[in-house]
């Protein structure tokens, strides 16, 4: 588990470095997350970094088992009066090792996908460690859709990464960089343009 946390902490540190360079307008830019700005996504990351197993279950019960309501409440708690205040909050939790009741690799999904939710609209490019992206992608492809994954997709398409040794699923192939595959299976339509293959039209139709 230690190697996972070192990768998670590396992603948090890289994002903090990128966020330090943003101006006020960039913080209010729409992210890839529907209805969330860059500022909102940073607040969400601060909230999830604090989350414990018991805290998650208690919060979900208070939100009447509505994941969207729970996330919105978390953003409200961690979104400071200014971007710098929110950034300080994220920096304070950057080295935490708490997690909700989910596989540990879900922390990599959280950091990488939300990192791209922030970076892509701002045209910031990060070269993510290949192992971290591959682990996140494998987890998404064995996680049911109800829990935010894409297990159902591999029953209808074969997803093949062109930059690492990873190919999962059956059916017409969809190929492209592992990061782009991770974003697409995490329902980020913008990364469809990075993919190719006979299975792509059917995959795009699921959005």
Write a structural description.
By secondary structure, the protein is mostly helical. It starts with a helix and ends with a helix. 38% of the residues are buried. It has a three-stranded mixed β-sheet with strand order 2-1-3. The protein is built from ten helices and three strands, in the order H-H-H-H-H-H-H-H-E-E-E-H-H. The protein has helices at residues 2-19, 24-27, 38-50, 53-62, 67-78, 83-92, 106-122, 130-141, 178-185, 200-204, and strands at residues 158-161, 167-169, 173-176.
Which terms would index this structure?
single chain; 207 residues; mainly alpha; 3-stranded mixed sheet; 10 helices; 5% strand; globular
Mean pLDDT: 93
Along the chain, the helix and strand elements come as HHHHHHHHEEEHH
Strand content: 5-15%
What overall geometry do the principal axes of the alpha carbons give? globular
Spatial strand sequence of the major β-sheet: 2-1-3
Gyration radius (Cα, Å) is 17 Å
Biggest sheet details: 3 strands, mixed
Low-confidence stretches: none
The computed structural class is: mainly alpha
DSSP summary: helix tally = 10
The number of distinct β-strands equals 3
Q: What fraction, in percent, of the residue positions are helical?
A: 40-55%
Distance between the termini: 34 Å
């Amino acid at each position: 588990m230690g190697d996972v946390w070192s990768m998670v902490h590396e992603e948090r540190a890289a994002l903090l470095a990128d966020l330090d360079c943003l101006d006020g307008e960039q913080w209010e830019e729409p992210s890839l997350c529907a209805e969330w700005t860059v500022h909102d996504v940073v607040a969400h990351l601060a909230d999830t970094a604090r989350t414990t197993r018991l805290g998650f279950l208690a919060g979900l019960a208070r939100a009447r088992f509505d994941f969207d309501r729970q996330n919105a409440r978390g953003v409200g708690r961690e979104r400071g009066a200014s971007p710098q205040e929110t950034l300080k909050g994220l920096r304070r939790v950057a080295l935490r090792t708490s997690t909700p009741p989910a596989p540990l690799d879900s922390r990599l999904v959280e950091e990488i996908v939300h990192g791209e939710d922030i970076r892509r609209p701002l045209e910031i490019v990060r070269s993510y460690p290949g192992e971290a992206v591959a682990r996140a992608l494998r987890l998404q492809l064995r996680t049911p859709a109800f829990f935010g994954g894409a297990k159902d997709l591999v029953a209808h398409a074969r997803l093949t990464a062109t930059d690492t040794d990873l190919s999962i699923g059956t059916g017409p192939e969809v190929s492209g960089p592992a990061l782009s595959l991770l974003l697409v299976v995490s329902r980020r339509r913008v990364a469809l343009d990075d993919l190719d293959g006979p299975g792509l039209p059917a995959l795009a139709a699921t959005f």
